[in-house]
Write a structure and sequence with these properties.
Layout: H1 2-20, E1 27-33, E2 46-47, E3 60-62, E4 69-72, E5 75-88, H2 98-102, E6 104-111, E7 113-115, E8 125-132, E9 139-147, E10 160-165, E11 183-191, E12 197-205, E13 213-221, E14 224-229, E15 232-238, E16 258-266, H3 269-272, E17 286-298
Parallel strand pairs: 3-6
Antiparallel strand pairs: 1-17, 2-7, 4-5, 5-6, 5-17, 7-16, 8-13, 8-17, 9-10, 9-16, 10-11, 11-12, 13-14, 14-15
Length: 314
């Protein structure tokens, strides 16, 4: 009876996965997390734990505590709380320096940043995340990707893919449709190592309802990346628009394995510089809910470009 039920569930899931796969190209569901376990799967996710501020003067300490990230009702819930915390002043990647390893910082908020670094990384594919975003001045939820290794050099020479960023959703905005902030952003970072980094991005209005679940994604092929919301494309970047100081290959730096990051920041340059400025400390805790994460690829090698022709497809 258990085996029959398992086979039935596997068949249903496989059929649903096939139905969700995009048309065009031999897509297969390569990796996913449906968050249907009682706890975060540490075989899929690790935590960044620091009070660095992301290099953006963000106001949170990231923790691995259940009060900041947990599975609730079949969803991953990342919670930003207004509470003082102290922790490492620099991210793990910089703590090879003994002085930085000893340094600590104190911030006025806590939150969480989950990463697949060291667990899973992909070169090309279709990545989608169904999530509900928090609102308020100073909130900065993000779904993004960083290179598994700095093959072309440190940031941003090896690239960064921002699948989704949103700041200050729901806040008064005189230039936004409806008079409230409803924009989401999709961006690439590339070029040289900081401060010679560059970026290109686009933004679009988040479809109604603002406080509902939406599917944020990219279709990433060799020489071409398309951003989507609820399955509809809203931005495209092609290889002629990016570059890296670490290679003359036109596909670089977006031709190497990248891992996925889910986080909810508080404040920071982008959030505090827009909208009503700064951080509204009322209304905490703030939550970001993730229903599922799914990654499709072509073939079995994990590096298939799914038939991209780069600039010619634009």
């Amino acid at each position: 009876m258990r085996l029959a039920a398992f086979l039935l569930m596997a068949t249903v899931f496989a059929g649903a996965a096939d139905a969700r796969a995009p048309a065009g190209g031999d897509w297969r569901l390569a990796w996913s997390d449906e968050f249907d376990s009682p706890a975060i799967d540490r075989g899929k996710w690790d935590f960044d734990v620091d009070c660095w501020g992301g290099g953006n003067n963000e106001r949170q300490c990231y923790t691995d505590k259940r009060r900041n990230a947990a599975i609730e009702d079949g969803k991953l819930v990342i919670t930003a709380r207004k509470e003082k915390a102290t922790g490492p002043a620099f991210p793990l990647a910089q703590r090879g320096d003994p002085e930085k390893a000893r340094a600590v910082a104190t911030k006025g908020f806590t939150s969480a940043r989950l990463v697949t670094r060291g667990q899973a990384a992909w070169t090309y594919g279709k990545i989608e995340v169904r999530a509900r975003l928090p609102q308020g001045q100073g909130t900065w939820p993000a779904i993004w990707m960083l290179p598994e290794t700095n093959h072309y050099g440190t940031w941003a020479a090896s690239g960064e893919i921002d699948i989704l960023e949103a700041v200050n959703l729901g806040v008064r905005c005189d230039t936004c449709e409806g008079g409230i902030e409803n924009r989401i952003l999709g961006t690439l970072h590339f070029g040289g190592q900081w401060p010679d980094n560059k970026h290109k991005g686009d933004e679009t209005a988040l479809p109604a309802p603002l406080d509902g679940f939406h599917i944020f994604g990219i279709v990433w092929k060799k020489g071409r990346i398309v951003w989507t919301v609820d399955g509809k494309p809203y931005a495209t970047r092609v290889a002629s628009e990016w570059s890296t100081s670490g290679s003359t290959d036109p596909a670089a730096p977006f031709d190497r394995p990248f891992h996925l990051i889910l986080n909810l920041a508080v404040g920071g340059g982008l959030a505090e510089g827009r909208g009503l400025k700064g951080v509204d400390e009322r209304g905490y805790p703030k939550i970001m809910e993730i229903d599922w994460v799914r990654v499709w690829q072509c073939g079995d090698d994990g590096v298939s470009d799914c038939g991209s022709t780069g600039d010619q497809e634009r």
